[in-house]
Amino acid sequence: MPFLEFLYKPKNELEKGGRAVAPIQADDNEPERTCPNCHKAIPLSRIWSNAYTCSCGYHFRMTARQRISFITDKDTFVEMFTEVKSGDPLEFEGYSRKLETVRSATGEEEAVICGTARIGGTLCALFVMEPNFMMGSMGSAVGERITRTFEYATEKGLPVVGYTVSGGARMQEGLVSLMQMAKTSGAVKRHSDAGLFYLTVLTDPTTGGVTASFAMEGDIILAEPGATVGFAGARVIEQTTRKTLPKGFQKSEFLLEHGFVDAISPRRYQKSLVSLLLKMHCGGEAQ
Amino acid sequence: MSEMDAYEIVKKARSSGRYTGIDFIKGIFNHFFELHGDRRYADDSAIIGGVAYLEAMPVTVIAIEKGHNARERMQRLFGAPNPEGYRKALRLMKQAEKFQRPVICFVDTSGAYCGIGAEERGQGQAIAENLCEMMTLKTPVVSVLIGEGGSGGALALSVADKVYMLENSVYSVISPEGCASILWKDSTKAPDAARCLKLTAQDALSLGIIEDIISEENMEQPDFFSGIKEMLLEDIYELNQIPTEYMLENRYQRFRAIGRTE
């Protein structure tokens, strides 16, 4: 894609990802992680300085906080709606306990972090989902936070950037979770009808009720390389249809081929791409 | 109020002897004319849609149809719509908006069809689009859950001004079997899951997710359908009295209020 090459030349350290001012030195007893794709052990500092990717191209999962510091301009993120927390509307067996455990294990209150930030200088509302919090599942608090983010953005005339990662609706909140799909979609529609820009980045994995609502409602939809994106789970499809799934089924490349995402966005160039798209839709001038 | 076990209700909701979408169309409307196809890919046989008269009023009717006999059920994929079904439904809703006809949906599905083709053609995107567009459809929308209300596949026809459930219908984010096998790795614990999921009409009513429950007491009698007809006429009359922008604001707030945690 030579015509897109200008995107791939970050102008400064910030646009490269806004991190790693001084390269972190690897020492001998540094912890390592094995890449699930090429099976090589890589020191953590190398993963961090390489935008959480392996040299083979594998994209490691990132926590929401890591993503926020990766994508936003330094010290511009302001978190919002932290007061919104899941209750236990159905009094579902074991759910309250599970929430407590997950909260203390992740240090997060919910499976999405929302707020405002600047990306490449453009002010936007931002939501980033957290894979380690019950697989980013959408319960009432996730739905409420995302809805409020869109309502806030509509009121202030801001674009929204959303990073999705989710196993779908949170079954422990039953119908209340299901209704969050309609609630968030309504807020997205109002934001869209106000002429405002919504960019989604689908990351591994985005499935179920999140795919079937705000993940697929962006004006522009990007996906990270190799991310699983779909509605029904692959194993369930295999079991019900008794057919072998085609290679690369529900990977982001498969979605690109079938016309459901606009582009695959590797992390290395992601910040410059998101910055450019925001600028293009929010009156910024080309540099 | 029925004190039946939740899983018993699930079984009733699924039973093959129940009225399906077609029966409701035949029982309530006159001169139903079926319209086919999503104008993009295909005609989905799990969703029936068309125009009809509700008494003297032209309306758009959309129903998920499971089929009555084995052959029909196979052909209609047991009422599990593919993306083209949701796109057909949306096409008909947009048509209804243009001609100022109210939309009435009958929902009865275990969920959106789960298959390779469905994913290739964007099942998630099709449902998402319906959720968005229904929220701002400038004509009254009433949905009735008549059997199974399976997750996103049911919600994609239930973003409405008024939502009703039959006494023995269910509405759930996941099937009790699916829930039990994910949570407890044992799908035989489905009856427990059904209880935990709060999926009965009574539960949905107390969670504020539906307007009312339709009694099945005199289901065999002819006035069962005329009762539903009266209810629909009343609702549409009421909705037609409200200026469109207020109706849409109410529809938005109806869903906005669910799960408003503090």
Q: What is the structure about, briefly put?
A:
By secondary structure, chain A is an alpha/beta fold. Chain A contains 9 helices and 9 strands. In chain B, strand 5, helix 7 and strand 6 (162-166) form a beta-alpha-beta unit.
Strand content of chain B: 15-25%
- In whole angstroms, the N-to-C terminal distance of chain A is 20 Å
CATH class value of chain B: Alpha Beta
**Domain unit count of chain B:** 1
Architecture blueprint of SSEs:
The complex is a heterodimer of chains A (287) and B (262).
Chain A: E1 32-34, E2 41-43, H1 44-49, H2 64-71, E3 78-80, H3 95-106, E4 112-119, E5 122-129, H4 140-156, E6 160-166, H5 174-193, E7 198-206, H6 208-211, E8 220-223, H7 234-241, H8 252-257, E9 263-264, H9 267-281
Parallel strand pairs in A: 5-6, 6-7, 7-8, 8-9
Antiparallel strand pairs in A: 1-2, 3-4, 4-5
Helix pairs in contact in A: 4-5
Chain B: H1 6-14, H2 21-28, E1 30-35, E2 47-54, E3 57-64, H3 70-75, H4 83-98, E4 103-109, H5 116-120, H6 123-135, E5 141-150, H7 151-155, E6 162-166, E7 170-172, H8 176-183, H9 190-197, H10 201-206, E8 212-214, H11 223-241, H12 244-256
Helix pairs in contact in B: 1-9, 4-6, 8-9
